[in-house]
Amino acid sequence: MIPQYELKAEDIRAYTLKLLKDHVKLDVAGYVCTTDIILDVLLKASAECSSIEAASNDLKGVADSNTIREYLNTALDIKELREQESTMNAALAECIPASMPRTKVEVAIDFHDEPFYGKQASLREVTCSGQAKKGTTHFIRIASAYVIWRQVRLTLALRYVLPDESALDILKILLNRLQELGFHEILVLYLDKGFASTKIINHLQERKQPAIIACPIRGKEGGTRALCKGRKSYLTDYTFTDGTSATLAFKATLVPDKSGKRRRKWLAFIVIELDWPPEKIHHEYRRRFGIECSYRILRRVRAMTTSRNPAVRFFLLAVGMILVNAWVFLRWEFARLLAPGLRRVDETRLRFHRFTRLLIRSIEAIYDVVMAIPASQSPESVIY
Predict the structure, then answer these.
(1) What mean pLDDT do residues 379-383 have?
(2) Is 335 helix (H, G, I), strand (E, B) or coil?
(3) How far apart are CA 83 and CA 236, in angstroms?
(4) Residues 17, 37: Cα–Cα separation, whole Å
(5) pTM: predicted TM-score of the whole model, two decimal places
(6) Which pLDDT band holds residue 155 (cuts at 50, 70, 90)?
(7) Burial of 226 by CB count in 10 Å (0-12 exposed, 13-18 middle, 19+ buried)?
């Protein structure tokens, strides 16, 4: 008889807790507050997409939210961002399945901005400015490298972006991190419009790295806009103003406007070391949107905070990414179809919502939850 294995809620908590304890430096040994308590409250807040205060108030026998925030602000110093970044990258890498190859994988790299409202000059020095969004022009910017292999999609390199770092600097750092993890041969690299610069084109051409970069269409009559003509998609050689030459792919699409009428919209891509037709370039580039999906999933496991400490905000973002990686790893290990030669995941067995709910239940089972609140009125005046 084939033994039946099961992934229990306490197994999910133990795995995610170990990921954080092995790499995050939170040495707490208080009378009421311990490292396990702080991490459990953080995991519950992340899984519920709630605040540390809400999570701590919901559990019995844990420290209050002010104590937890004090420990976090003490442990997460803005001067130690790079050390913190290194520990988070190590935790992300723990989620790589043993069967995952290190060659011929696809990689997507992108930026992600979180609004920042701090006014202190020392804090503004570690934030990036950009177009106004959500009431601010300052953002905590992170860059991440996302590896695509079968149904395993993992964020394996994370970088806190400082204002003086260029897109080329970030690209080199993330690619070097992937090389440290053994990913020496990247099949195709997918980059967003933020990386469409001649310096990056030259760098990738020198490395002979196959890549597709979304190219912004600029100009009123000249520039790349002048090439958006005709009805069919096509490839062409293009020379930028600084003399850099590259192959551009133009994809003609039909998109409905506000009235419902389908109008032609052009998409442009910079193509490096690839001889694919425009249709295949457009189709394959759509795989890059997996990294956009990972950011949407991240919003579901990101603890809410109003802290103006960039190190704390970066830490909570990284914890969310670690939770997403943990889900991908456990789904691959426990929800694979048990058929000879099959490496496919039964996506219905461990959906992301089930993963977060099991994590929450395991934490609540340990500390118990608050089931009542004291009444502010006398029992006689309460109407049931």
Answers:
(1) 58
(2) coil
(3) 45
(4) 10
(5) 0.89
(6) very high
(7) exposed
